[in-house]
């Protein structure tokens, strides 16, 4: 059993801290947001993530997790200090913004004493960050005994708790035996179950994270471009995806065509890897193209919507089903819906939105739209429906429901939620398949 400090209670920090506590470790989660810490003690989660509230509350009741704003006391009690703050893309350069990481490093240096500490970077950071953090702490606390480790996360939003507790791999970037031994002990409850742990240097660990996300982003963009070709060639992209996915070397995951990737990871990580590669004089053309095509994807989807309405968007009322960047999350960061709906609004479209979790953050992104409390209420009396997020409950809406609720039975499905055969009597437009009328 280890004493663990998580600095940052955002998506990665809170999920990781809760899961470590669930595995039997003692965890202290630290954040400078007093309101968030107060809410966490009451069991109020800052994010929506399946199973997260339950394991946080259970661990809190068992005394294995606590929440505080006092970093100094947390560092004093813990041997392992995780840095889990955000590293957003710099608006001007596209590089990872490490200002919060470095600020935490300085705070650690102020509070570190004589006992050895393993400082662990779980935030997604570029190559060289471990060395930079080490220099910051050494400069401010020359006598401190510590090591800096890179331990990237591989958590899918909506499945983060499951991904942590049943990992496909655990990557530890450690340059010395002592920190590696500590990290192996920390993850022993998982490795004892057979989950693989890969030991690398910090630079390689960072590269694995960026390469993984960028590869998956390229896979999404490949199927999206293939979908465009399928529409023109008369092929069905869903069957194409099934066919190529049956090849074990390719697999089915991330072969779902749609409006492009969004969220907190893929956009910023592909951009950061692209900038990093250019700095090293080894540009990654595939990643560069993926970024450009993903940005263009939303304009292609706008054209699809406009064509579905025969170029007559002004004055139309459209029911929008889903605005989060994907299902099972309330995350709106870089969601394709933001650009698409803003352009529809500028085209004179009246929008009524329903999203099972989107109402929490949605109004700040779509102040011009109305929010409904259910899909039927959003659909009622609208001139058509637009599906932007693949929430499972939308699959339960039938052609009969659309015909009954919509003024005009017109559905633009950018997530291919239905089989065209099931949309009899509805003018149905999907991605990578022939329209059905």
Helix content: 40-55%
Find the CATH superfamily of the largest domain: NAD(P)-binding Rossmann-like Domain
**Major β-sheet strand ordering:** 3-2-1-4-5-6
Under the CATH scheme, which class of the largest domain? Answer: Alpha Beta
- Stretches with pLDDT under 50, minimum 5 residues: none
What is the helix tally?
17
> Which CATH architecture of the largest domain is right?
3-Layer(aba) Sandwich
Shape: elongated
What share of the residues does DSSP label as strand, in percent? Answer: 5-15%
Q: Give the class from helix and strand content and strand pairing.
A: alpha/beta
Question: CATH topology of the largest domain, what is it called?
Answer: Rossmann fold
What does the model show?
- This protein is α/β, with parallel strands linked by helices.
- It folds into two domains: 3-200, NAD(P)-binding Rossmann-like Domain (Rossmann fold); 239-429, Rossmann fold (3-Layer(aba) Sandwich), CATH 3.40.50.
- The chain contains 17 helices and 14 strands.
- Strand 12 (384-387), helix 17 (399-405) and strand 13 (410-413) form a beta-alpha-beta unit.
- The protein is elongated, with a radius of gyration of 24 Å.
Can you summarize this structure?
By secondary structure, this protein is of the alpha/beta class. Helices cover 43% and strands 14% of the residues.
């Amino acid at each position: 059993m280890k004493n663990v400090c998580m600095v940052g209670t955002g998506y990665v920090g809170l999920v990781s801290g809760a899961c470590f506590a669930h595995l039997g470790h003692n965890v202290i989660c630290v954040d400078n947001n007093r309101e968030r810490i107060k809410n966490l003690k009451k069991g109020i989660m800052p994010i929506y993530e399946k199973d997260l509230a339950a394991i946080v509350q259970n661990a809190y009741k068992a005394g294995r997790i606590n929440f505080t704003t006092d970093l100094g006391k947390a560092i004093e009690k813990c041997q392992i200090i995780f840095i889990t703050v955000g590293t957003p893309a710099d608006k001007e350069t596209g590089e990872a913004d490490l200002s919060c990481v470095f600020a935490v490093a300085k705070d650690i240096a102020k509070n570190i004493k004589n006992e050895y500490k393993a400082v662990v970077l779980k935030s997604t950071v570029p190559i060289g960050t471990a060395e930079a953090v080490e220099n910051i702490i050494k400069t401010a606390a020359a006598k401190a005994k510590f090591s800096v480790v890179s331990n990237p996360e591989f958590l899918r939003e909506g499945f983060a708790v499951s991904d942590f507790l049943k990992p496909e791999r655990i990557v530890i970037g450690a340059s010395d035996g002592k920190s590696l031994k500590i990290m192996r002990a920390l993850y022993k409850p998982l490795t004892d179950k057979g989950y693989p742990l890969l030991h690398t240097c910090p630079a390689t660990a960072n590269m694995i994270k960026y390469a993984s996300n960028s590869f998956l982003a390229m896979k999404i963009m490949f199927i999206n471009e293939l979908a465009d070709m399928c529409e023109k060639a008369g092929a069905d992209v869903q069957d194409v995806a099934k066919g190529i996915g049956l090849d074990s070397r390719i697999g089915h995951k991330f072969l779902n065509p749609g409006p492009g990737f969004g969220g907190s990871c893929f956009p910023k990580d592909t951009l950061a890897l692209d900038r990093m590669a250019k700095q090293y004089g080894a540009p990654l053309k595939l990643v560069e193209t993926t970024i450009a095509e993903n940005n263009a994807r939303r304009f292609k989807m706008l054209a699809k919507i406009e064509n579905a309405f025969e170029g007559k968007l002004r004055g139309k009322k459209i029911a929008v089903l889903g605005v989060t960047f994907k299902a099972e999350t309330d995350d709106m960061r870089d969601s394709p819906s933001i650009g698409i709906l803003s352009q529809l609004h500028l085209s004179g479209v009246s929008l009524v939105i329903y999203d099972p979790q989107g109402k929490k953050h949605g109004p700040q992104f779509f102040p011009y739209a109305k929010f409904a409390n259910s899909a039927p209420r959003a659909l009622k009396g609208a001139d058509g429906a637009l599906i932007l997020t693949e929430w499972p409950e939308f699959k339960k809406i039938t052609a009969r429901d659309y015909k009954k609720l919509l003024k005009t039975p017109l559905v633009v499905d950018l997530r291919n939620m239905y089989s065209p055969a099931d949309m009899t009597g509805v003018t149905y437009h999907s991605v990578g398949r022939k329209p059905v009328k």
